[in-house]
Inverse folding.
């Protein structure tokens, strides 16, 4: 194929840079695949366009509408994935490496689309918790909400996962309503460009929602302010340089960094060679060394094993590594492809040389490798390299130098506390795994090493088969680690959406806050309408709409009937003698569940209507016991609404059961599904 001239997408147009382009070579053949330049592109104008055109349009959409857009993009990319795989081979990735990147990226979009629909409201803002405090009379309250930022999310990605890296940042940003300027690493930018082109040209997103820089970012950072944010993935050196940009510091531009990580996996002392966990450990380490030729930020770099298992572990790993077929990633027999570029291979070799200063190479030759179907020297092929430190106690480099390739080092340890100390010497990593069957060991390691790791995986025979593995960040779980790993946090479901929003503390009257935030707060006006609220379809119900029931006396006969009917003959309801001197109860009291059942009987409007189903209760609290002879009544108020489906939506009702003394006996939130049209 002839080399592609990559274009950036700026201010609504595809443009090639004006300067001398950087040539990007195939990782497999060394032949040119593409060239990229962003010279001459007006970065300030891109930022303005993102803020004023893209951001303004995205902020008009609700979370649900943005989630629909993500789902449509995921569907679109799925239909074009063969073309993406074709390009992916040039990055040195095998088909299964490509799956992690391409399907992993698409899967992340699907997860965010689904979470956006299920876990976020059909609104443009998000409440954060309930009322946090109220004044003495309740006329003044405080609570929190997340509002959209008014800036642009600038995403700078590493070379190893051109598609996943772009989409895992893009999905939460778009869901939050932030326009994105994305910059793939120049190596492999042709793959990111192809995916971005599909997204942009589909017009699924409003104009300005996504812009792309293929090449350098030039003076982009000079134009960012406190409404913008940066998501960076790459090396510690680049991150430190970019983070110290004076404009970013002055304007307090949030900078989320995902950087180097010297991840470890620990084989616990309780695992013998005969246990299935031993094989699980070997499989995991082998996979982490070889998938994507070890160019994964989460790959296992440090293999911590009990001293008396070190020989067995190294023998088992060497046996597997010797069988590994390396070569042209298009070949079906190939299990490991090439590194991303020749310069990457030079870098990894240099780092292996540093590691070898304190370690012996047990397997592999950094300077040569036998490959199938390709020229080992023209392509960026490298043998997997297994090292073993000569002296665990004095080894330093292994805890500081990340060789971003198929390279891992064995560190024999004496006792589990030594393993923990070694694990933590990575000074902050993305993931640590532990293979054990022993609960005490697992607890000890998690609590003693947890602060140093973003994610911890405990593997044993019970979960290994279904485990997503040491190295796979999941969109549901946070991805990021402290210290060396950058201190950033990405993914983690809705958490990442919140990172792209601004949390604001709000104060005011219950009436004002209820109306502004579309969530009724006690003390705000109650709205009484002609009919019972159950007669109103989802769309017709208004926030604050309230029903007050008549009273009902709770008798001793009711309590005894309920007890015998349900079998709940707990002494506090049945035995006056036994309850004497009880710290909470004045004597026999009504069952809490009896109160709930009576409350339903008091507030329900029985005829068939728009209320389709009772869907559950949240935040139930029994506040005051109800004694036989006392009367209760119920207040039912529409607290908030969330459309869930074309045909129905969820209504959250604030319910308060009051005893005849005028005190709340119970409060809870009742959820019903109500039809849009009665
Ligand atoms: P890198 O050299 O630091 O580059 C990362 C990104 O920064 C690239 O897009 C690069 O663009 C860009 N960049 C470099 N200088 C820049 C500047 N002055 N202004 C703006 N952007 C600039 O890292 P890499 O070699 O691509 O990636 C390998 C490293 O990333 C490894 O150390 C690995 O541990 C880390 N990584 C971490 C994670 C994680 O999630 N924590 C994931 C993957 C990789 P160009 O390509 O155009 O130079």
């Amino acid at each position: 194929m002839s080399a592609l001239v990559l274009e950036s997408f700026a201010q609504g147009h595809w443009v090639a840079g004006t300067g001398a382009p950087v040539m990007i070579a195939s990782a497999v053949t060394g032949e040119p695949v593409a060239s990229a330049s962003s010279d001459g592109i007006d970065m300030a104008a891109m930022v303005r366009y993102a803020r004023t055109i893209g951001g303004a349009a995205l902020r008009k959409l609700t979370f649900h509408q943005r989630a629909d857009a993500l789902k449509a993009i995921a569907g679109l990319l799925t239909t074009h994935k063969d073309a993406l795989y074709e390009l992916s081979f040039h990055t040195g990735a095998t088909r299964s490496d490509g799956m992690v990147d391409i399907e992993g990226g698409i899967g992340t979009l699907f997860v965010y689309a689904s979470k956006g629909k299920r876990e976020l409201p059909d609104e443009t803002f998000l409440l954060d918790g309930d009322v946090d405090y109220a004044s003495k009379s309740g006329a003044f309250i405080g609570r929190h909400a997340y509002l959209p930022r008014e800036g642009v999310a600038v995403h700078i990605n590493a070379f190893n996962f051109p598609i996943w890296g772009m989409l895992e940042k893009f999905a939460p940003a778009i869901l939050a309503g932030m326009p994105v300027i994305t910059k793939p690493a120049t190596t492999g930018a042709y793959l990111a460009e192809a995916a971005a082109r599909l997204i942009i040209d589909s017009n699924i997103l409003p104009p300005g929602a996504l812009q792309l820089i293929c090449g350098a970012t030039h003076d982009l950072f000079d134009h960012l302010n406190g409404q913008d944010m940066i998501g960076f993935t790459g090396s510690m050196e680049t991150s430190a340089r970019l983070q110290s940009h004076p404009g970013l510091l002055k304007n307090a531009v949030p900078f989320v960094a995902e950087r180097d990580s010297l991840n470890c996996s620990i084989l616990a002392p309780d695992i013998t060679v005969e246990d299935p966990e031993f094989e699980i450990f070997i499989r995991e380490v082998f996979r982490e060394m070889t998938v994507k030729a070890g160019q994964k930020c989460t790959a296992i770099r440090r293999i911590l094993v009990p001293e008396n298992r070190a020989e067995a572990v190294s023998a088992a790993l060497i046996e597997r590594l010797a069988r590994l077929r390396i070569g042209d990633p298009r070949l079906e027999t190939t299990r490991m492809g090439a590194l991303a570029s020749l310069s990457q291979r030079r870098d990894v070799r240099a780092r292996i040389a540093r590691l070898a200063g304190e370690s012996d190479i047990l397997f592999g030759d950094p300077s040569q490798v036998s490959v199938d179907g390709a020229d080992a020297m023209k392509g960026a092929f490298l043998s997997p390299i297994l090292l073993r430190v000569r002296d665990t106690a004095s080894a330093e480099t292994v805890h500081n130098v990340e060789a971003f390739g198929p390279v891992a080092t064995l560190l024999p340890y004496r006792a589990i506390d030594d393993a923990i100390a070694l694990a933590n010497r990575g000074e902050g990593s993305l993931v640590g795994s532990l293979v054990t069957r022993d609960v005490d060991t697992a607890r000890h390691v998690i609590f003693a090493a947890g602060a140093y790791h973003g994610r911890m995986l405990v593997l044993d025979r019970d979960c290994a088969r279904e485990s997503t593995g040491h190295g796979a960040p999941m969109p549901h779980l946070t991805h990021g680690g402290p210290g060396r790993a950058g201190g950033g946090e990405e993914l983690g479901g809705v958490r990442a959406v919140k990172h792209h929003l601004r949390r604001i503390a709000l104060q005011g009257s219950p009436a004002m806050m209820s109306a502004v935030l579309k969530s009724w707060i006690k003390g705000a006006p109650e709205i009484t309408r002609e009919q019972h609220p159950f007669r109103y379809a989802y769309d017709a119900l208004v926030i604050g709409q309230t029903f007050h029931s008549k009273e009902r006396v709770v008798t001793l006969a009711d309590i005894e009937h309920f007890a015998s009917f349900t079998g709940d003959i707990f002494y506090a309801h049945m035995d006056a003698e036994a309850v004497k001197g009880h710290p909470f109860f004045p004597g026999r009291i009504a069952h809490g569940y009896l109160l709930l059942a009576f409350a339903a009987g008091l507030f329900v409007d029985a005829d068939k209507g728009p209320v389709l189903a009772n869907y559950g209760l949240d935040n139930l609290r029994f506040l005051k016991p109800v004694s036989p002879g006392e009367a209760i009544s119920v207040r039912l108020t529409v607290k908030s609404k969330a459309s869930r489906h074309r045909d129905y939506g969820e209504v959250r009702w604030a319910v308060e059961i009051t005893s005849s003394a005028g005190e709340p006996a119970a409060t809870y939130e009742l959820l019903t599904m109500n039809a849009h049209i009665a």
Remarks:
- The mean pLDDT is 96.
